[in-house]
Design brief:
Blueprint: H1 2-19, H2 21-27, H3 32-47, E1 76-77, E2 92-98, E3 108-114, E4 121-132, H4 138-145, E5 148-149, E6 158-159, E7 168-174, H5 191-208, E8 216-226, E9 229-230, H6 232-245, E10 253-260, H7 267-272, H8 275-281, H9 283-286, H10 290-302, H11 308-312, H12 336-347, H13 385-390, H14 423-429, E11 432-438, H15 446-454, E12 457-458, E13 461-462, E14 474-475, E15 479-480, E16 482-487, E17 490-495, H16 502-505, H17 507-517
Parallel strand pairs: 4-7, 4-8, 8-10, 10-11, 11-17
Antiparallel strand pairs: 1-2, 2-3, 3-7, 5-6, 8-9, 12-13, 14-15, 16-17
């Protein structure tokens, strides 16, 4: 047998040599120098298209803001003294402020404020919160849109050339009470109470940092999930609505808002209905066997998920979109999301619901979370005593990215999802509003956000009237990177290759979206 095989292969190999095919194989090899040169060229092309961040990689300067209230000096952070950061970040201000002017107030929120970089605007103020409920906004600062970053897998902090300080000043707030370094006993039961406490904090903040009064305010947030909930999609619309409904409460001009990968509607809509279609879209990532895929298809058919999008998500909508069953979470026997999650972990123990492309090994994370499961890292960066002292945080508080206590009391948040309540109002009252979704996010699925939008009425009409075009989101220096669609004051973005934390996983795209929200570019 082997002799026959040898007689067959030798002539073929000889022919390959004659035709020069061996040379073509060698030509496909690439050495490290060439590879790094191509990567550097691509990175340079992206940087060349950052008009408001020119020189961000080499410059750590900031625009000067002088605060005249003597109390401001109590919160000053020397940019040369932040532990592990080996360059001068520039001045910033951080610490605790109460949520009211009551001299006996015990509830305080922790904040960290950064002025704009050299290209940033002095006329604007970005507010950022993470979700949870109870997850720290310092995650956004350190791993998404702050001036320095320490993402998982990084050995040390690096400068963030896509920092939103290249657009304007930015205020990170750990809220509500019970989150991060914030102090006091939580007592809220709904989003309106949360918004009132946050606005109370902002009043105290603006009293100390008076020079920020009168600026245009942009509320931004992302729904990092904690114990099955995803909350900045709740926080931001309700805070915005409170500010619009109480126009004298803050000396700021609320101009627009951003929510990314947000909870907007029911769990069954944003997780269950699109889950099996999501797996089919990324079959090579999940790598499930045919038997399990057939099982998922069967459950989707029986539970009313199969064909839902094709039948009901039309442009324009034909009417209100129905629930697939009786539950707003999942009918008995219809929880395909959890089945998929458990099966994905069996195939890939490093499966990450926040970015499905992650594989083994699980990267070291200086914050220890987020991910599909907690990791025990030592030490957690913001729980280090030297870090706490540098940023005026309470040394006696054990910091964790997501709180171990309930920040909503007496049974949890009683507010309805914002698409049914305040979201239409805040879209109508904002100059621009953006909803952003990473397409590689499994904790909340982009197709579910589309369903919510098509079921929502704002500015006199239900949903988008015309279809969302594929490859319509063109990122400068990169090309098509998802979709975007604008109607009646709302712009929706889907970002390809990005997981749940869009500023972390696709920072150039996130930066461009913020440019659009803030009016620094006319089109998305």
């Amino acid at each position: 047998m082997f002799g026959a095989l040898k007689r067959t292969l030798l002539p073929l190999l000889g022919a390959a040599a004659v035709l020069g095919l061996s040379a073509s194989v060698d030509a496909k090899l690439i050495n490290k120098a060439d590879l790094h040169a191509k990567q550097a060229e691509a990175a340079a092309r992206i940087r060349a298209n950052l008009p408001r961040a020119t020189g961000a990689r080499v410059s750590t300067g900031v625009k000067n803001i002088t605060f005249t209230n003597p109390r401001a000096s109590e919160f000053y952070v020397d940019g040369t003294t932040i532990p592990e950061v080996d360059w001068d970040v520039g001045p910033s201000w951080s610490g605790l402020l109460p949520i009211s002017s009551d001299p006996n107030e015990t509830r305080q929120l922790f904040f960290w404020f950064f002025p704009p970089g050299p290209q940033g605007s002095l006329d604007d103020l970005i507010f950022w919160t993470n979700g949870g409920p109870g997850c720290s906004s310092l995650e956004g600062l350190l791993q998404e849109n702050g001036p320095f970053q320490w993402s998982y897998g990084q050995a040390h902090p690096t400068q963030n050339e896509f920092s939103w300080t290249n657009l304007s000043s930015i205020l990170f707030v750990e809220q509500p009470v019970g989150t991060g370094f914030s102090l006091g006993k939580p007592n809220i039961t709904n989003e309106d109470e949360l918004a009132a406490q946050l606005v109370g904090f902002m009043q105290q903040f603006l009293d100390v940092f008076q020079e920020l009064q009168g600026k245009k305010l942009y509320l931004t947030g992302e729904s990092i999930a904690h114990e099955g909930a995803q909350y900045a999609g709740m926080y931001v619309p309700y805070i915005a609505n409170y500010i619009y409904e109480h126009p004298q409460a803050l000396n700021l001009s609320l101009t627009g808002f951003w929510v990314s990968d947000p909870v907007l509607g029911w769990d069954v809509v944003q997780e269950q209905i699109p889950a099996v279609d999501f797996v089919h879209k990324y079959e090579n990532v999940f790598s499930f066997n045919e038997t399990f895929m057939a099982h998922l298809d069967s459950v989707a058919e029986r539970c009313g998920y199969a064909g839902y999008v094709e039948k009901h998500v039309t442009f324009p909508p034909k009417g209100l979109l129905p629930l697939p069953g009786k539950s707003v979470e999942a009918d008995p026997g219809c929880d395909v999301w959890d089945e998929i999650f458990e099966a994905a972990l069996a195939v890939n123990p490093a499966f990450n619901i926040y970015r499905i492309f992650d594989t083994w090994p699980i990267l070291w994370d200086v914050l220890g979370f987020p991910g599909s499961f907690f990791q025990t890292q030592s030490p957690i960066y913001f729980d280090r005593e030297d870090v706490k002292r540098a940023i005026h945080a309470p040394v006696n508080v054990t910091w964790s990215e997501c709180s171990n206590i309930n920040v909503f009391t007496r049974g949890g948040d009683r507010s309805l999802p914002p698409a049914f309540t305040v979201l239409p109002n805040v879209i109508e009252k904002s100059e621009r509003a953006v909803i952003v979704h990473g397409l590689a996010d499994f904790i909340l699925i982009a197709e579910g956000a589309r369903i919510v939008i098509q079921n929502m009425t704002w500015n006199g009409q239900q949903g988008f009237q015309t279809p969302i075009e594929e490859d319509s989101f063109i990122v400068d220096g990169m090309g098509a990177l998802g979709t975007t669609h604008t109607e009646r004051g709302l712009t929706y973005f889907e970002v390809a290759l990005s997981g749940h934390m869009v500023p972390q996983f696709s920072p150039r795209a996130a930066f461009q979206i913020m440019e659009y929200l803030m009016g620094f570019r006319e089109t998305p």
